[in-house]
Design goal:
Layout lengths: L1 E6 L8 E6 L2 E5 L26 E3 L5 H4 L2 H6 L6 E4 H32 L13 H8 L2 E4 L5 E4 L2 E7 L7 E9 L2 E7 L22 E5 L11 H16 L3 E5 L5 H14 L8 E4 L1 H12 L6 H8 L10 E4 L2 H7 L6 E5 L8 H9 L6 E4 L8 H6 L4 E4 L2 E4 L3 E4 L9 H8 L8 E5 L3 H15 L3 E2 L6 E3 L2
Parallel strand pairs: 3-4, 4-5, 5-6, 10-11, 11-20, 12-15, 12-16, 13-14, 13-15, 16-19, 20-21
Antiparallel strand pairs: 1-2, 1-22, 2-3, 7-8, 8-9, 9-10, 17-18
Helix pairs in contact: 3-4, 3-7
């Protein structure tokens, strides 16, 4: 049995793991690379033969876990893509939006290159089109939590709730290899405990091999009770001085959680009633998916629904779908809140809003999610006095704030709590989905405190599981 790490190895994005066991070939996740230093990998041919895969298992609907599925299909994959029902709905929304954004960005770059008579670093074409997304979505096979799925001879999978975003899963793979039954646990992205809307992460009692993310392997989020008050303070200061609060959002989970908290602040009178724009057709569509899968909400959200209170709406919330409506926001005078994708400022409408707000001191750019190394969001967060947006350098005069507790990822303490669920040490723990220093530091801590065998694999490294 062999496990190869084809992404999220000593870097955060591009999750992709290739498992072979007694002739059965399975790919766990097929994510897009989003850090600037690794973007070229998105354009490289798959290092495996997609047509030979028996199945793909998707932990959840974030681009760094599912964003290259249409490319895999275009390269020859024709098998089933297993994921939870909620994730299947969200993957459809996400991939269609991704294809549209890529087409728009490619058209914009072609126009700019013709004007400036220069060539860019990457091909001026989309990675995939809506047609290829359509082919991909027809391969989706929704599965329920805790229901065994037969993959091939001697190989089966069970999806457990990861508590990260709606529909997110940890995957437990059981495989026969050389007459032995081996159990592999893929954490996907481990969620936080006591988050609004979603349930708590699942725990596992056993696993021969464990692949765990380490995005926040060296950091702590701080008390969750501070999140709503911090949001109220930052928004209140900005709106009081007549500025705009601009929040780069991830359309799935982060947008809905922000709506939840802003609604509570407005209802309690802690924020003035100003327009709050959700400027993301995808986030709007995702919010509808949340409403369809309300059976997956946690107990608190279920109680709000039982009392006829919506956790996903409030007076003053404006859903912005068309491009014309989005452009109109930037001509609006006076205070407002703008929630726009993408969460790392790598593409989409947020870049247009930043062009109009980032150089005005009355405004605030608020980050509520992880910013991968090399992304525009990371450059702003690190205090660069000027950043390049749409081909031009822009001075950063707006206030820049950050609230880490919004993260859907478990922090160091929560990751160790998750590992503590195992009743005995696995034969090996692999740490992935984290910047190299973060993964290596967490690996040392796990070795020192738990005495486990831990490794941090390199990109494309293959490991024999015996």
């Amino acid at each position: 049995m062999k496990l190869q790490f084809l992404g999220a190895a000593r870097q955060v994005t591009g999750s992709q793991y290739h498992l072979t066991a007694d002739g059965v070939r399975v790919l766990v996740d097929c994510g897009m690379f989003q850090e600037r230093a690794f973007l070229a990998r998105n354009w490289e041919p798959s290092p495996i033969r997609p047509e030979k895969l028996d199945a793909v298992l998707v932990t959840h609907a974030h681009l760094d876990h599912c964003g290259l599925l249409p490319k895999l299909v275009a390269e020859g994959f024709r098998g089933p893509i297993y994921t939870t029902g909620a994730s299947a709905d969200l993957v459809g929304v996400l991939l269609r939006d991704s294809a549209k954004i890529q087409a728009e960005d490619a058209a914009f770059k072609r126009k700019r290159h013709r004007k400036e008579r220069r060539k860019g670093k990457y091909p001026v074409r989309p990675l995939y089109t809506l047609k290829e997304v359509g082919h991909t979505l027809r391969l989706l096979e929704p599965v329920g939590y805790d229901e065994p799925v037969a993959i091939g001879d001697g190989v089966s999978a069970v999806f457990r709730d990861a508590g990260h975003i709606l529909g997110s899963a940890m995957i437990e793979l059981a495989a026969d290899d050389g007459g032995r039954r081996r159990r592999l646990v893929f954490s996907g992205d481990v969620g936080q405990w006591d988050k609004p809307l979603v349930r708590d992460p699942s725990l596992f009692a056993e696993g021969d091999y464990v692949v765990m993310e380490s995005t926040y392997g060296t950091r702590e989020h701080g008390p969750r009770g501070d999140i709503e008050s911090r949001l109220g303070e930052i928004a209140g200061r900005t709106l009081d001085r007549g500025g705009k609060l601009v929040v780069p959002i991830f359309a799935i989970e982060r947008a809905q959680e922000l709506i939840y908290h802003l609604g509570r602040l407005v209802d309690a009178g802690h924020l003035p009633r100003v327009p709050v724009f959700l400027d993301s057709p995808m986030a709007i569509e995702v919010t509808e998916v949340f409403r369809r899968h309300r059976d997956l909400f946690d107990a608190e959200a279920q109680a709000m629904l039982a009392n006829h209170n919506s956790p996903l709406g409030f007076p003053g919330l404006v859903m912005v779908e068309s491009t014309e409506e989005s452009k109109g926001i930037n001509s609006l005078k006076g205070p407002a809140v703008i929630l726009a994708t993408s969460g790392m400022c790598t593409a989409g409408r947020i870049k247009h809003h930043l062009v109009h707000t980032i150089s005005d001191a009355e405004n605030t750019i608020l980050f509520v999610g992880y910013q991968a190394h090399g992304t525009l969001g990371r450059q702003i967060l690190e205090g660069n006095p000027k950043v390049r947006i749409h081909g031009r350098l822009r001075e950063v005069r707006a206030a820049v704030e950050r609230i880490e507790g919004f993260s859907g990822h478990a922090d160091r303490t929560a990751l160790l709590r998750w590992l503590g669920g195992f009743q005995q040490a696995p034969e090996q723990l692999f740490l992935t989905h984290g910047e190299e220093d973060s993964s290596l530091t967490l690996a040392r801590q796990v070795r020192d405190e738990l005495g486990w065998k831990v490794s941090v694999p390199e990109y494309r490294e293959a490991v024999e599981l015996v």
